[in-house]
Amino acid sequence: MRFKFSVVVAAVVAFIPAVPAEPVAAKAEKSVWIGISVNQAVFLQEELEDQGALLIKFALVNDGDKAVTTDVDSWRIIVNGKEMSERDTSTMFGNGSRMEYTLPPGGHAQIAKAMGVYFKEPGTYRVSWKSKTLASPEITFRVLPSKKK
């Protein structure tokens, strides 16, 4: 009896049509793509004595046909499920290169921030960023403990 059931299940599964996956926009109503990346997946703790060793890049693409606001003043960074302090986030995005407040149709922008000072402890870090209207996917990287001498 078990053999007959297996044959029937296999026959039914063989006739279910495949549905192609559809690309998913970050926020379809605004047609804005938001991305985040890190320059490498694994860091040694001692490497992070140089703050510039760990770079996180933030990117936006306006796929729409109208200019959109970047909401730069509302950006927040999420680390392991917790929002970084407003002071740290404001310092990070307020100093150095900044994104424009608006992106033209078809426009894109990307900035890189040196963030080693925020990730000096060994561990696995899950990082994303968000604004009032957008949220990035999450990236993951590790910081390994210093080698004992």
Instruction: Using the coordinates shown, work out and report the CATH topology.
Output: Immunoglobulin-like
CATH hierarchy, class = Mainly Beta
CATH architecture term: Sandwich
Largest sheet: 5 strands, mixed
The percentage of residues in β strands lies in 25-35%
Q: How would you spell out the order of helices and strands? A: HEEEEEEHEEEE
What is the number of helical segments per DSSP (H or I, 4+ residues)?
A: 2
Descriptive overview:
The chain is an alpha+beta fold and 149 residues long. It has a single domain (24-144), classed as Immunoglobulin-like. It is 15% helix and 33% strand. It has 2 helices and 10 strands, in the order H-E-E-E-E-E-E-H-E-E-E-E. The strands form 3 sheets. Strands 2-10-9-5-6 form a 5-stranded mixed sheet, covered by helices on one side. A 3-stranded antiparallel sheet has the order 1-3-8, with no helix packed on it. Strands 4-7 form a two-stranded antiparallel sheet. The chain is elongated.
